[in-house]
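Need C-alpha cells for this chain, all 211 residues.
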Amino acid sequence: MDWTIVGQIAVAGALGAALGLERELGAQAAGLRTHMLVSLGAALFTIAGSLEAFGSDPTRVAAQVVTGIGFLGGGAIFKEGVSVRGLTTAGSLWVTAAIGLAVGMRQWLAAIVTTALAVLVLWLFELLKRYLLPGREAIVLTVTLEPGTALDTVEKATKDHVPGATVHAVTYAEHEQRLVLNTQADTDESLSALAESLRRIPGVAGVAVSR
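Here are the C-alpha cells for all 211 residues:
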C-alpha cells in the first residue's frame, strides 16, 4: 500500500472539510459533504492521472476536473426574484477543486495556504459586510392587491412605508394584481414587522417579504 497516496486523499478531505464547514455554518446548499467530495474527487483524479497506466499526465486530468466543476458550480447558482444567489458557494466549490488538484500534485504548501485564505475571505469578509455594509442586502417585496384596487395608489403607499423601493414587476389581470418591489434595508430589520406594516395598507390582500 502506498501510504503517500492515502495521506494525499486524507489531506484533501480535511482541507475540503475546512471550506465546507464554513458554508455549512452559513446554511448554504453546498456544505460540508459537498466540499469534501469535490476535494476528494479532484485529488483522486489528479493522482490517477499521474500514474503510468493513464499516460502519466496529471495536467490533462486537471483540465477535465476544471471543466466538470463548472457544471457543478453552475448548479449552485439560482435566481430568486431580483437577486442572484449561490455565486459565493459556486466560487468556493471551484477553489475546493483547485485545492484537491494541488494536493493530488503534492503541492502541500499551496493547498494549505489557499485553504486558509479562502476560509479567511469567506468568514472575515462576511463579518465586515454584515457590520460595515448592513444596508446592502436586497429585500424583495411582493404585494398582492384586492380586486378592483388601483395599482398606483398601493404603489405610492408602499413607497411611503419603504423609502427607496423601486417597482421590479407588475402583474395586472382580471383576478390577480400584484406589485414586486426591490429595496435595500438594514439586515436587523424584522421582516415580519415590515410585512405587517404593508399589510395594513388599504387594498392590500397579502404581502410576501424575502431577502
